[in-house]
Amino acid sequence: MIETTLFDSSYESRKQSLLSWTLERLRPIYTPDELRVLRIDSISREVLSLRSGRGFVNRDILETVLGNLLECVAPGSHNAPAPRQQTHDLTEAIEEVADQLYAFIAQSFLAVADETQVEDLALGATFALLWELPHLKERALWNRFASLKDPSVWDAYLLHKGLPREKLAELNIIAQIDHTIVQRDFESYRSFLRKLNLEFAFDYQMQLVVSTFPGWRVLFYHDVAHALTKAGPVADNSDLYRMPVPLLPRAISELGGRYYQADLHPETRIGDANFLEHPHRGITTGQTGVIGSGCVIYPCTLGGLSVKVKQRHPIIGDFVTIGTDASLLGPVRIGDESSIGTNTEIDGFVEIGTDCHIGSSVVIGTVRSESVNPGKIRMGKNVRVGDGTVIENTPAIDLIIPDRAEIPARSHVANDGFGHPRFVS
Question: Is the dihedral of CA 411, 337, 209, 26 positive or negative?
Fold first, then answer.
């Protein structure tokens, strides 16, 4: 393959069989209303075939491609082309997206690989991603639903319709949203609202999120980038095989950072039904990081301490809340349903159990000396740590904080030399 034949006859014939296969899978996931509002921006093949630098396509065009993919998972949420460019035909829409994806992926491989292999590699990666659209569409939907945890979705428009603020303040809405996420059934939440004569609010709030909230969008960017880092057979289709795509996943990640200030490394593993609150203030994840499902994450840093190729970033469980300006650095582990307060710093070899509450401005970390590698800090279940507390471990033996321990605010806790907590005066 050479520059001028990026879309040659071989590509066309191979694409058609893969496209037919993919469309059969995709048609059932769209309602007639979604097809009516689906809008895909076209890009000429001449533009897609242009190389910049060492064979990598212009990043400005990448925004259009990602916007089209966003339309595929949330029709009507992103694009508004001129009427003559709009198509309600799913075949045309997916074929246009396939051509765009193929061009970007092929250009990425052309920058680093033998040109004779590019078509196979690019077709495999392109249709592996399109095959996953049902999964990506569902993830995007649950990420939007998780954004209903933001109390501002009960905005002036809804309150003006006669909802007393005092009534809303009495409701544990977040608990009901989490229950719905666990059940994976929106009817659970609708039923909750129906009993309060508030069911009308649900559709409006979901429209508010899809139209104006940035968190679910940057999570979708990450989903696309992450899918392009995968290798091997595709789930539910062993005939599709893909290799990790060079360059492009990081380019998508950087674009997410440019527009949303959320630097999510493409290899971070992230569950769904997560709510990124105010991502424009900055959220950072690392290559080996893991984030579960149902989390609420405010602007924070989930970073690394080591430069070695190993697990060096935090692992976050399900339904975890991480407060503003928190820093979790290194192979920290946070158990399910725990919360980390604002301005808290946790670094090193720290394991926090399930349902723990860590207050604000807390410092928890292992301290390395020239002669001793510190043991871990292992925190049990249901531990409560008050604001302004310092917990540190310097000996080689692990420091164990037992289940249901309560550490008062502004305490200083160290290892007594036998693995038990000692309060330092």
Answer: positive
Answer with the one of 193, 212, 231 that is the final residue of a domain. Answer: 212
Domain that holds residue 188: 151-212
Inter-helix orientation angle 9-26/90-110, to 10° = 130
Please give the C-alpha separations between residue 2 and each of 51, 97, 136, 283, in angstroms, as whole numbers.
Answer: 11, 22, 33, 40
- Do residues 230 and 190 both lie within one domain? no
Residue 146, in any domain of the structure: no
157-161, 353-357, 414-418: least confident range: 157-161
**Which structure tokens are listed for 250?**
């990081």
Tens digit of each residue's pLDDT (9 = 90 or more) over 261-315: 999 999 999 999 999 999 989 999 999 999 999 999 999 999 999 888 899 999 9
SS3 of residue 405 by DSSP = coil
Is 100 in the same domain as 172?
A: no
Q: What is the pTM of this model?
A: 0.94
In our burial notation (b when 16+ CB lie closer than 10 A, e otherwise), range 16-53 reads eebbeebeeebeeebeeebeeebbbbbbeeeebbeeee
Q: Are residues 88 and 186 in the same domain?
A: no
Cβ-contact 154, 193 below 8 angstroms: no
Asked if residue 201 is part of any domain, the answer here is yes
Other CB atoms closer than 10 Å to residue 418's CB: what's the count?
10
